[in-house]
Write a structure and sequence with these properties.
Rossmann fold, alpha/beta, 4-stranded parallel sheet, about 45% helix, binds 1,3-dihydroxyacetonephosphate, 12 strands
Length: about 350
């Protein structure tokens, strides 16, 4: 009896903790997180946090995953760059990476003695999946002597054949540091256009040679979405990720990584923001800036959303083979070199 009461009290306390963090956060269909939602999540967050302690595990969650993961169980939440850094420096025995495959793979490359688990299993990314190692090799053979950068949203076999990796937070600065007036940048065709324009704007122009694909979330935004936001909310500040088409980015007030967008909101005096990015980042801003308004037209990454409290707990208790991250040994060392080069150039 006492035990049952104690358990109930712990669940209620946890639900209150979660509700305190999530009450200003939207769910997909417009409603906000309720106390009942938090009570339903509480048994999982309690169990995951307990297992983490017992197994010396750390949870890294990308901002695009769901807010119950981001605020309920993550030890670190952030963009691709911040999470790669955390993965590299952690002393925990187990890294649970709530994100997509290329992110978890990067964690394993950077800290290979750790057990790296991804709750979502082999959750892809339309950018990373747009280019194979064979295609990268062809491109390098086609343009001998031209330096090559790869976006972190790429497979290890692509990273391994590039001079440096970059993230959305450092792509412009790193590209500017690379000598020469031609540069290969893969696998994001839209970011490549934004990169070429930004280098031109900075007075350090380069011809960008690109191949690959687009992000299935950010490639959907159109100039009409920006125009509608401005017509509906005259005071709005519109912010976008550099994976969006250049015609859209040109009309926005700020373009940057998920971390950059958060920093922009933090320092802006505006109170209304149009968000041309994935819903998870909107949720983070709603949680952290409850007095500001965030207008989000659409955009959900189904790959990121494959991470749930349930499969995070399952991965901790008894991981399925697809949740255990291994890197092709043939590529690991060279891919690490390209990621380490990014850390060096990002200084
Ligand atoms: P960030 O590094 O800006 O978080 O971007 C990752 C990503 O996948 C964007 O779609
Ligand atoms: Fe990949 Fe786009 Fe999803 Fe980011 S939002 S993980 S780029 S598919």
């Amino acid at each position: 009896m006492l035990q049952t009461l104690d358990k109930e009290a712990r669940l209620t306390e946890e639900a209150h903790r979660l509700y305190g963090l999530l009450k200003s956060v939207s769910k997909e269909k417009g409603a906000k997180w309720t106390y009942e939602d938090c009570l339903a999540a509480a048994p999982y967050t309690l169990a995951i946090n307990q297992f983490k302690k017992e197994q010396n595990a750390v949870v890294l969650a990308h901002s695009y995953t769901t807010p119950d993961l981001v605020y309920g169980v993550a030890d670190y939440r952030g963009d691709s760059y911040e999470l790669a850094l955390k993965a590299r420096e952690t002393t925990a025995d187990i890294i649970i990476f709530a994100g997509v495959w290329f992110m978890a793979e990067t964690a394993k490359i950077l800290n290979p003695t750790k057990k790296v688990l991804i709750p979502a299993g082999r959750a892809g990314c339309t950018l990373a999946d747009a280019m194979s190692g064979t295609e990268m090799k062809k491109l390098r053979d086609q343009y001998p002597g031209i330096p090559a950068l790869c976006y972190i949203n790429s497979l290890a076999e692509v990273k391994a054949q590039c001079d440096s990796c970059v993230t959305s937070g450092n792509v412009f600065d790193i590209a500017q540091k690379i000598p020469g007036n031609e540069l290969i940048f893969v696998p994001d065709l839209l970011m490549a256009k934004n990169l070429e324009a930004e280098l031109q704007r900075r007075g350090t122009p380069k011809k960008i040679i690109s191949a690959g694909g687009t992000c299935c979330v950010h490639d959907k935004y159109r100039p009409a979405d920006v125009q509608k936001l401005r017509a509906d909310y005259p005071e709005i500040q519109i912010i976008a990720h550099p994976e969006c088409p250049i015609e859209v980015c040109r009309l926005c007030d700020y373009v940057g990584s998920t971390k950059g967008m958060q920093a922009y909101v933090a320092k802006s005096r505006a109170t209304c923001f149009g968000m041309l990015t994935e819903f998870g980042l909107v949720n983070r801003l709603e949680a952290e800036y409850p007095d500001k308004k965030f207008i989000w037209p659409f955009g959900v990454c189904s790959y990121m959303k494959r991470n749930t409290l349930v499969n995070t707990l399952e991965a901790l208790i008894d991981p399925q083979p697809e949740q255990v991250v291994e890197v092709e040994p043939a590529w690991a060392a060279a891919a690490k070199k390209s990621i380490d080069k990014m850390f060096e150039l990002a200084q």
